[in-house]
Design a protein that fits this description.
The complex is a heterodimer of chains A (202) and B (430).
Chain A (H helix, E strand, L loop, with lengths): L10 H15 L3 H23 L2 H18 L10 H20 L21 H19 L3 H12 L4 H8 L3 H19 L5 H6 L1
Chain B lengths: L2 H16 L4 H6 L5 H17 L6 H14 L2 H8 L4 H15 L1 H7 L7 H16 L5 H8 L4 H12 L8 H23 L6 H15 L6 H23 L5 H25 L1 H8 L8 H5 L16 E4 L10 E5 L3 E6 L3 E2 L2 E3 L5 E3 L4 E4 L6 E5 L6 E5 L2 E6 L10 H8 L2 H11 L1 E2 L4
Antiparallel strand pairs in B: 1-2, 2-3, 3-11, 4-7, 5-6, 7-8, 8-9, 9-10
Helix pairs in contact in B: 1-3, 7-11, 8-10, 11-12, 11-13, 12-13, 12-14, 13-14, 17-18
Classes of the chains: A mainly alpha (202), B alpha+beta (430).
Chain lengths: 202, 430
Amino acid sequence: MTRTFSKAETSSDWEPQRQIVEAAQAGDLEAVGSLYDAHINQVYRYALARLGNVQDAEDVVSEIFYKMLNGLPHYQWRKVPFAAWLMRIAHNEVVSFTRRNGRHSNDTELPEEILDRGRNNDPAENAERQLALEDLRKAVLLLPEAQREVIILRFASGLSVADTAKALGKQENNVKVLQHKGMQRLQVLMTPKYPELAQKQS
Amino acid sequence: MSKKRIEEMLQDCLDGYEAGLTPEECLSAYNGDRAALETLLRQALSLRVAYANSPSETFRLEAREKLMFAAGRDVRHALASEPDPQFVAMARARFLNAAGATAQEALRDVPPPRLAFWINARRRLLEASTSPRPSRRFALALRYGLSAAVVVIALGVATLAPFGGNSPQSADAQLAVLEQQITSLERQTLAGQPVSSSVLLDVTRKINQLTGTLDDEPAIARAEKLEGLHARQQEVVTKQATSDDPALAQAQEELDEAQEKLRLFAAQVASPTQAAALVVPTEPPVSPTAITTPAPTPTREPVSLGQVRTALAREDTTYGLTWVRITTSDLSFVLPDSWRLVNVEPDQNGILTLSLTILRIDTPGDPPVIIIISPTTGEANALIKGNSVRLRGAGPNGTTIAPDILVAATGEVGLALHHFVLSISVSAAP
């Protein structure tokens, strides 16, 4: 079938970012700033999703970008896209942080200001929606490590399947399978509290 | 419907959603698989919404600032900034002092040893060698493997110390150097710049040392000069003595001591008997051979190519200014002591050396004039208010600019400029 809406991830699409990365590697500070601006949300969401704590996420995000800075001279565009490379740093840093601090990512204290396109003015409905999203985030934390990693990279950081695969050092098919399994498991975890999900599927 | 297929459909729907389509528009392309796809899409979108949080603006900016700092922005800015001109001037003066440029210049004026000295030194050496217990100084020298010739030379240098009374010319040169140093200190003090207490002490010590050499007739003139320098240095030390620096206290002691010596010397000169003693020249106690041998006339070493010699042009008091004579291998001229030689630096031996093939001179005041002069041909051009002006042509008889043009272009500075131009003397043909 044709990929109706898919974005063509060709080399020409990457060219502007490649130029920025190469400029940053050459010591252009503005380019370093541009990389930060382009990826801060991606990295922050990943860290927050993995750690579930704003303070920890902020600490780790700062560290991730320092690591990015130190690693820039060694980064090679041909091997892996920049976003995937950066998220690999993020993954390693989160793992390192949790080991170092002996924390488990199950204490979700996500901020209230969640952006929601479907938000309306009904306070009761909004509160219900917030609770549902909170439950979903908790459910993600209950997923096996590999599935959780894929789900967070795909839906929190917004990485493509290809970049997720490169960030995790896996095959694309493997990522798709993990994503599919993860989503199926989420449905299972969410169904007892939200039976309408199962009903819709049936 | 394969698993692969539904995953690809989901991906397409997510991409479409990102591109701005509604979920319904996305799903309408897959009516056959709509039921399964809708559940996955809703779940995927819920996940996106669940994690669609952004860092606080404060954190975002702080983290960015730290990152940019780490990337070296501030370091680069710091390195790119220009140092304080006063600091540059002070560091330059200290560097020149440390390099011993002034000392090197002074040593140029030390006359070669007289023959009488060589004979006396030889005699002393022979006496010492025949003595059963050689003096400690010789014993040490010989123990360290110094040859007799080296010992003789060392003795000669020690005897002909630049401040010694036997070498009035070197003492005069020292006075000139001292005056330059005090002038420099005065400028620094006037500009409110701190002066190193060690430099002050060093200069003061030189004054004190020189006052100790006032023991013959030419010393009267030197004493007058020293008295003036002493007063000027006293003023500098007083102005700088704002802290409890022991070096400054020591400098003051040196000044007091020097003043006492000057006072004693003045008293000696005033006394008729002492004055008579000073007027009658006394022969040095040397052997007859030494007396009959004429001392060689002290001559100045010629200036090598690329080197620059500076000396106070004492005879020149034009326009009431203090003029300094600049000499290169082929050229000689005078300029006011406030003008600055830009591209002249002391080399590793402390000899002033040109860093370029031309000599650049900057004048202070308004308008600032930049003079470029060839150190070999004497050709001189000036940059005045952005215009290039030929001051002097090349060669021994190079055409010089008319004074009225210079005065019209630069005002009062024009007179000094014209005197400078007229003073240019080229010794060799270009």
